[in-house]
Structure formats: C-alpha cells, structure tokens
Design brief:
GO terms for molecular function: transaminase activity. The chain has 13 helices and 17 strands. It is of the alpha/beta class and 417 residues long.
C-alpha cells in the first residue's frame, strides 16, 4: 500500500494533532513543516503522562526504576531508528545546542593546529559553531562553496578543499532553505581519503522527518536532530556521538561516569516521546511493506515517505490538472532548480513581480500556512548569491495530500496573475 491510498492517508492523518486546523486561526493547510512538523497524538499523551511524575531517575523506588527503564528503551529505539549499533545517544536543550556541543568537543579535543572544514550551504547551527570554535582553538577554517544552482554541496567540492591536517569536518544533510539533500557518505569518503582521522559531525535536523537515516553507513562521529521537526515536540534535541568522540575530554561532573554527555537530570518524557516517533515509523513501514524486522519496517517507511513527498513536490513544481506548477509561474525563481533529484519535501521560490511577504500573507489569508525565508543570518548564505532578498518556503511532510497541493497552486495562480 502507498501513502496516497485513501485509507492509509486517513490513518496517517488521524495520528497527528491539528493536521488540518490551527487551534488559533481555524482550518488551514500546513505547509510549514520545515519550521516544525506536526506532532503525533501519542507524543502529546506521553508528554502529559511524564510531566505529572515527580520522581527522579537513580532513586531506590519503583517509579524511579520505571523512569530509568523508559530511558534505556528510548536509547535502544534511537539506535534502531538511526541504525547506530555503536556510540551513544543523549538529549539536550535543542538540536542547535547539541550541534555546538559536539563541534566544540571535537575542535577543542582534536590535536593542536590543523584546520576545520565546512560548507557555505550549512545552517548556522553547525557553521557558526565551527567558525567560533575554530577561532577559539587557533585552527584555520576552510569554507567549501556550495553550488548556487542546485543548492547543494558536493563531495568533489570538499575534495578540492581538503588538506591532510583537517581535524574536524561538518556536513549538512539537508538544507532547510532549498530542501536539497547532500550526499553524506560520498562527502565523508572525500574527507577521509585525505584526513582519515578527522572528526565528522553531521547536522541531520532538516533531513530527519523524511526518514532514511543510516549512521552505520556514514563513517561519522556525530549526528544531531531536533525532534520537533520529526513529529515529536519542542524542548529537547537528540544527538549521537561515536565512541572515539566520547573518548575526548568532555564537559562532565568530576569523578562522575566516564564519557557521560548528559548534564543534570533529564526529562524522561523527552526520551519517551522519541520512542513514540520510532514506533510510528515502525507502524508506517508495516503498512507500506511486508517487512517484519523492525529496522526493515523503518527503512520501508523512509522509502514510502520519500516516494510520496516526491510525488507532492513534482506536482507542486509541474502542475496538476489545469493548474500551472510553481515552476511555470511568470518571473519565478525555484531554489535548487526545477528538476533536482535530491529534493526532500520542500520547494522554495520567489516571483520577480510580487513581494515575497505579500505571497505569504495572501496564502495565509486563504488558510495555507507557508513561511518567508529572508536573506538574514539564517538564509543569507543561500539567498544573497541568487540576488534574492527573500523566498517563500513551502515545506511538506508525508501526511500532506495532493488535494492540498492543488489548493496551493490554485491560490498561486491568482496571486501570480
């Protein structure tokens, strides 16, 4: 069964809160998933359940033991979801905070001298951290330019900039501005061919909701996601660290457990809600395949999500029925290009004759939630080279439908006209 099957579409949408209506503004189509995906109903229930429990972990009572068991199970679920049989998972304040911590640990703990490398396509979560800690450690920073036309950075671009003394490398898995994914395994291979001992940290925050994460195949040292962008909630981030990254000097309590990244008492509910996310992917993989192995079902879910989202973005770009696609509108710029096979559930565009803010406002007035990305510290690295002051970001997930795309295109036909 495909996600577009009406019965499965209904079953999927029934599992999410506020799928077609905002509690403040009423009925709406949600195309702002890159800013924060919809939340699973199970996550809402789990959050309330654990928020009411007063006990802490590490105490000699039944409630405390149960909390520890929940966290242990969540870490097992995370290892399954990310396909990470080694290393360790932990939660923190946010994806950005965890990205800073991993990069800080790698840069400050690596051998003296040398360089840090990253690309111009990266989100500030990794780029700012790499620049800051490279400067603090007295290491040069190498900027790998991304391709403005495709909105991505290639392994070849990394290879051309690599030197043997690179100590730390950062990679963006998918851009939250262009929606275009980067080939992480190929980039890592290019890095390790020249600097085999470099620590490699990946920002997977935008990529996670589209599935298909496979840490075991990446040969990396750190991977970070923001759960509110992958059907959980705000208030925490999830990071994976390799054993060799955890062996570096990390900030931890004196005389405490060796290699412990967590600082202070963690929210058990955060861990538990990520188990809800993993359980959802497992369920979806069971609906879209005959797989029985949990990891195989998660992989099947990722494949089904990718196929459905591609059909939605193809329709959005090329049109449906008698409605022109976004790529056919007069004076349009499509970030990443019209035919980009690495697009993941997102289309950003601008019109040369209608201000971007007006487009977002008019869509919002018609109950279609999108977002404006301005050429600021978040998106200027992508928009400025294109000569754009701003772009409209239409970001979707697998619970979105072709009918919602049709409504968007009908509205855009009038706005562009």
């Amino acid at each position: 069964m495909t996600i577009a099957d009406p019965s499965l579409t209904r079953a999927i949408r029934d599992r999410f809160a506020h799928v077609d209506s905002c509690p403040f503004s009423g009925p709406r189509i949600f195309f702002e998933n890159a800013g924060g995906a919809l939340t699973l109903n199970s996550v809402v229930e789990t959050s309330a359940k654990f928020a009411a429990i007063p006990d802490n972990q590490g105490r000699g009572n039944a409630a405390s033991h149960a909390l520890v068991a929940v966290i242990k199970q969540a870490k097992t679920d995370m290892a399954l979801f990310f396909n990470a049989p080694n290393g360790q998972f932990f939660v923190g304040e946010s994806g950005t905070e965890l990205t800073f911590r991993l990069i800080r640990t790698a840069v400050m703990g690596a051998a003296a001298g040398g360089k840090v490398i990253g690309s111009s396509v990266e989100h500030p979560a990794s780029r700012s951290a790499a620049l800051h800690w490279a400067d603090a450690a007295g290491k040069d920073y190498i900027n790998v330019p991304h391709d403005d036309a495709t909105g991505q950075v290639t392994a070849q671009a990394y290879a051309a900039a690599m030197t043997p003394d690179v100590r730390v490398a950062t990679i963006l898995h998918t851009s939250p501005v262009t929606g275009i994914g980067n080939d992480v395994p190929a980039i890592v291979s290019a890095i390790r061919a020249v600097a085999p001992d470099a620590f490699v940290i990946v920002d997977g925050i935008q990529h996670a909701s589209h599935g298909r994460i496979d840490i075991a195949s990446y040969d990396i040292d750190g991977y970070v996601v923001s759960p509110y962008k992958v059907f959980s909630r705000h208030g925490y981030g999830v990071a994976w660290a390799s054993d060799r990254l955890s062996a570096l000097p990390i900030e931890t309590l004196k005389d405490g457990p060796v290699g412990n990244w967590e600082m202070g008492t963690r929210d058990t509910g955060a861990y538990a809600t990520f188990s809800d996310v993993v359980n959802y992917f497992d369920w979806l993989g069971g609906e879209t395949s005959d797989a029985t192995d949990p990891r195989a079902r998660i992989e099947a879910a990722g494949a089904a999500i990718h196929a459905h989202e591609k059909s939605l973005t193809d329709a959005m770009l090329n049109g449906v029925d008698n409605l022109p696609g976004l790529a056919d509108l007069p004076g349009v710029t499509i970030l990443g290009g019209r035919d980009n096979p690495d697009r993941e559930g997102l289309v950003s565009f601008a019109l040369d004759h209608v201000p971007t803010s007006d487009i977002v406002d008019q869509l919002n007035a018609q109950g279609i939630r999108t977002h404006i990305r301005r050429a600021d510290h978040y998106s200027g690295n992508i928009l400025n080279p294109l000569g754009l002051e701003a772009a409209v970001r239409v970001s979707l997930c697998h619970y979105n439908t072709h009918e919602e795309v049709r409504n968007l295109l009908a509205a855009m036909k009038d706005i562009a006209g």
